[in-house]
Amino acid sequence: MTKKVTITDLAKRANVSVTTVSQILNGKEQRFSQKTVAKIKALQLEMGYVPDFNAQSLISRSGKTIGVIVPSINNPFFAEFNHGIDSYSASKGYTPLIFGSNNSPQVESRYLVEAIRRAADGMIIASAVSDVNETDKLLRQNGLPYLLIDRNPPVKGDLVDVQNKQGGQIVADYLHENGHHKIILVAPKDLTLNMELRITGFKEKMKELGVDFSDDQIVHTDLSMAGGYQITEKVLAAQPTAVFALNDELAVGLNRGFAEHDVRVPEDVSLIGYDNIDLAAYTIPSLTTMNQPAFEMGETAARLIIDRIENSDSDLQRVTLPIRLVKRNSVKKIN
């Protein structure tokens, strides 16, 4: 087995002290000549020396690490969300540890413990927490600041959310403007807070517009493309003029299912999604959807949690980001 290169090995090759190497590699280059700094960095690359994370953490009392739990690392929305976290974290010298809970409370709990064990400095939780109070207790007992994303109920802590209720209202208004009154809403079996708010906004706006909409017009399935695809026949049996899917993955699955049943979008049925994942612009037809600023959500979450890590006594931070309707080709105006 190959022996790991140590700081002692590097110092010996450079013919300098371990302290000199340590200080140069920890940003204190101004104390040394340019020749010495260049020599150390060249040897670091040549020898493949990587500083020991645990040793650095002990010295600095911080691993500059952020734990991130999302419901699925395969969901395109959360891929963009994670990109935002990574982008801002890197600019501040932090490294995100990203975990996918697969919507499992057991997996989520295990990863929370793992983040604590690995000395994370803070947590961003986008997965729907099974018990907010228990999570709060666990993290606070271990001195770990955390931030919740809009899938979770509000607690006494930092929060990033978007205008979910307003999003549902905008969809209802748009479908009504286009003449649609017979609508099926497709939702996940296990509703998170943000999904509930979208439904509430949609139903309230429909009532305000004088359009009948009941819970019988809500079809539940797994929150995935496969989930949307699998309920195609059930949705079509209701003979809607329009379908509102609570996320774009559901809409993409339905779009394929409709095509296989020779049902044309939007000629035979209109379809609208939510999230504005990249794929939405490339379906046939391109998908009308509500845009959630996934990258900005991740970037904002990273900014807030790093602010909290570095200024623990600052006021609570709650940021609500805007949404907007992206009109493409999947909704048809009818009489």
Protein model, in words:
The protein is elongated, with a radius of gyration of 25 Å. It has helices spanning 7-14, 18-25, 34-47, 53-60, 76-91, 105-117, 132-141, 164-177, 193-208, 225-230, 232-237, 248-260, 294-310; strands at 65-70, 95-100, 122-125, 146-149, 158-162, 183-188, 218-221, 242-245, 270-275, 288-291, 318-321, 324-326. The longest helix has 17 residues, at 294-310. With 335 residues, the protein is α/β, with parallel strands linked by helices. The strands form 2 sheets. A 6-stranded parallel beta sheet has the order 2-1-3-4-5-11, sandwiched between helices. A 6-stranded mixed beta sheet has the order 7-6-8-9-10-12, with helices on both faces. It folds into 3 domains: 7-51, no CATH class; 62-162 and 294-322, Rossmann fold (3-Layer(aba) Sandwich); 164-292, Rossmann fold (3-Layer(aba) Sandwich). Helices cover 44% and strands 17% of the residues.
Number of helices: 13
Work out the count of structural domains. 3
**Structural class computed from helices and strand pairing:** alpha/beta
Low-confidence stretches: 57-61
Helix share, percent: 40-55%
CATH H-tier superfamily of the largest domain: Response regulator
Instruction: Determine Rg (CA atoms, Å).
Output: 25 Å
Sketch the topology as an H/E string, one letter per element: HHHHEHEHEHEEHEHEHHEHEEHEE
Q: Let me know the number of strands.
A: 12
- Average pLDDT: 89
Q: Which CATH architecture of the largest domain?
A: 3-Layer(aba) Sandwich
